[in-house]
Specification:
Bound molecules: the ligand COc1cccc(CC(=N)NC(=O)c2cccnc2OC2CCNCC2)c1
Order of helices and strands: EHEHEEEHEEHHEHEHEEEEEEHEHE
Distance between the termini: 27 Å
Number of strands: 17
Oligomer: single chain
Strand content: 25-35%
Shape: globular
């Protein structure tokens, strides 16, 4: 497949594959700040750039509506991600965020928001190099404006604005293969409400399986089993930060979290992110942690249901409790909170529980990418300690 745009960018190129003489690390050197293009890239004449203040209720609603109607769908176009407004405010306002990296495209004549792309700053370690990067997300072009080549100019514009803050690398994911993935992950789903999942076509009744047998197969206990398992609270931030920093150190690519990051990203926020920990009843030491974020999907064209309530595995750490048992408690809590499905990628140590906890493989893959940073060999998913929203 020809990638007219990506062949012009500082990313691993197919022609470089196998050329182990190329060093790991930045592909291009930083541009002297005075030489970074000061003015925005040109858009087609009908459109204009519009920095979006997600903190504004009106603008957040415009972004929400654009994504709700035009963002990523599954391969069979049966579901579309339906990020909530509170999720968008949370995802786009991490410590140190730049409003200028929340970029919209509007129709000049009507001011209608028709496209969007975002970046947020994050410290990502690659092997033992900690690099400040932009995490790029929410690239969305209105369905009616597809194949007008808007995406390349939006990617160049967010790159320009990231460069203006003296940041030269980025991380992003996509369901499509571009030059060149640093890792390719499989996604898995654990049914919590199998009857609804089958009704809406997310799952199919197994061969030689009845509906009642299927409901029984996925049944979970009413309450969690690990002694000391409880919701994370503000007072837990220092201990959880220590726990997660130590745990993520084992992966080749992983975020470097400080206490501010942990407080923002992992402290429970209603309908956005849930996190639990195990506090030893004897020593009161915090030994384990699990978390998931809430990303519903609109169900396209089903008469009985409009929304799929999905939990996405986020960061999970064990030092005492078996990961299998901790994750089963996460499933139990998600079921208690009426989620229909619990999704996970095969990153970190997730592979060790997926099959045993009755996850089924999804029908797609999620590819991870770094911009302007070469990694000599693609990573196994188990070497990846980074979960993007
Ligand atoms: C069930 O509704 C869907 C609506 C749109 C797309 C997909 C399939 C899909 N593309 N799933 C994932 O990318 C995925 C599957 C498991 C875990 N995380 C995921 O993606 C996350 C991380 C990347 N940004 C989107 C959310 C499913």
């Amino acid at each position: 497949k020809t990638h007219k745009f990506w062949e012009t960018q500082p990313v691993g190129q197919y022609k470089d594959l196998g050329d182990s003489s190329l060093p790991e690390g930045p592909i291009e050197s930083p541009t002297p700040i005075g030489e970074v293009k000061q003015e925005p890239y040109n858009l087609p004449s009908l459109y204009e750039w519009s920095t979006c203040d997600i903190g504004s209720e009106e603008t957040c609603t415009e972004v929400y509506n654009l994504l709700t109607n035009n963002y990523v769908e599954d391969d069979e176009n049966m579901f579309r991600f339906n990020y909530s407004k509170e999720f968008l405010r949370w995802a786009l306002h991490p410590p140190g965020y730049f409003k200028s990296w929340h970029i919209g495209v509007r129709v000049k004549a009507t001011k209608k928001l028709v496209a969007f792309i975002t970046g947020v700053p994050a410290k990502i370690r690659v092997h033992d190099e900690v690099v400040t990067m932009a995490e790029i997300n929410f690239l969305c072009v209105h369905k009616r404006l597809r194949s007008k080549r808007l995406a390349p100019v939006m990617i160049k514009e967010v790159t320009r604005r990231v460069h203006l803050e003296n940041i030269w690398q980025a991380a992003y994911t996509a369901g499509v293969v571009l030059p060149t993935p640093i890792a390719t992950c499989q996604y898995w789903h654990r049914s919590l409400n199998p009857k609804k999942l089958i009704d809406v076509g997310f799952s199919r009744l197994g061969a030689r399986m009845t509906m009642s047998r299927t409901i029984k197969l996925y049944k979970l206990p009413d309450s969690t089993v690990t002694p000391g398992f409880r919701k994370m609270e503000l007072r837990d931030v220092p201990a959880v930060t220590r726990l997660i920093k130590n745990y993520l150190a084992q992966f080749v690519v992983a975020p470097e979290f400080n206490e501010n990051d942990v407080e923002h990203l992992l402290l429970p926020t209603e309908n956005v992110v849930d996190s639990y920990l195990v506090e030893s009843p004897e020593t009161h030491e915090i030994t384990d942690f699990c978390s998931f974020y809430t990303l519903p999907s609109t169900i396209l064209g089903n008469p009985n249901y409009s929304t799929l309530k999905a939990a996405y595995s986020f960061y999970n750490v064990t030092t005492r409790t078996p990961l299998l048992q901790l994750m089963n408690d996460a499933l139990i809590v998600a079921k208690q909170k009426d989620y229909d499905v619990f999704n996970a990628l095969d990153v970190m140590h997730n592979e060790s529980f997926l099959k045993e906890l009755k996850f089924g493989p999804g029908d797609g893959q999620l590819h991870y990418y770094l911009y302007n940073y070469r990694i000599r060999h693609a990573l196994k998913p188990s070497e990846l300690g980074l979960v993007l929203l």
